[in-house]
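Much of what follows relies on a compact textual record of a protein's fold. A complete example follows; check for yourself that the lines match position by position.
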Amino acid sequence: MKKEFNIINSSVFKKIILVLIVISLFFVLNTNAANAQSALDIGIYPPIIQAQTTPPAQVKVPIYVENFSQNSVSLNISLKPFKASPNENGQVDFSQNIQYPDPLITQRIIVFEGNKQIQNITLSPKQTKTLSVEFKIPQDEPKGDYYFSLVFSSAGQNPGDSTSTQATGAVATNILLTVGPIGKTQGVLEDFSAPQLLLQGPVPFTVRLKNTSDHYITPTGDIQITNMLGQNAGSVNLLPVNILSDSVRRIPDKLQAGNNSDFNKIKALVDNSKYPVAVWPQTFLIGLYKADLTISLSSSGPVFKKSIYFFAFPAQYILGILIIIGILLYIVMRVRKKLA
């Protein structure tokens, strides 16, 4: 009887193990499927399309859309108007209340695959497609700037296609369209500043520029730094960024556009800054410094210049030196006392 009891329990135990394995495989497979469905691994080049036209005009710009995943994806194509984010960091703010000079402008921006106008595409695994964005600007088109994101968003799973994925999300390329003739380039240097007292570097500079033109601008400039002896101590090259019409943007430095040893020096400061800053990566500083900003709104100007001063007092280093000097003096005095 005891032997039968053991056999019965052994059989039940095996069944339980089998059920647990099946349940585990079910969850693993469904988890993998969910992960596959939630990933949209698509790339678009160029990330920004800049077009300046004078009516009438018909311009085509090629774009490349690549599927990096192992699954087929279907994407819907749409245009979303945007304006500059109030955070002054270069991000965009989508809004339904944007009023453009031409309310029908979206009908004049068309996406083609070959010679066929399209509103959606399907990409096979690892496939790249070449599309084109056409701007058809009529003779009577009102002048002004038009800002859109050309959005490629998930169209869901393809029925009957076992290799497709229900990817969620969207990717986009931004369109900056200027319909000319272009007016006068103008703006205001809202702020150029730095902390007045520092214990050590790197040094964050705030550069805020307002674009009051009727078109977007891409200013260029730098900051030259001299020490209290009038010697050149370093420089900061500003990143040429787009500033949309009637908006303010804080301008960072070129080091933040790459990933190198100099960027690693300023990464912590950049990450901890509430707003974008231009950073001088010099770490050891002492004394008075002068920073001269020169920035041009366009190749033909106007040019803004401003100078500021900041003072660096490396207290921790000076304290360390004083402690060392104190120790040395104490040793000298003890030696003299013994010799006496």
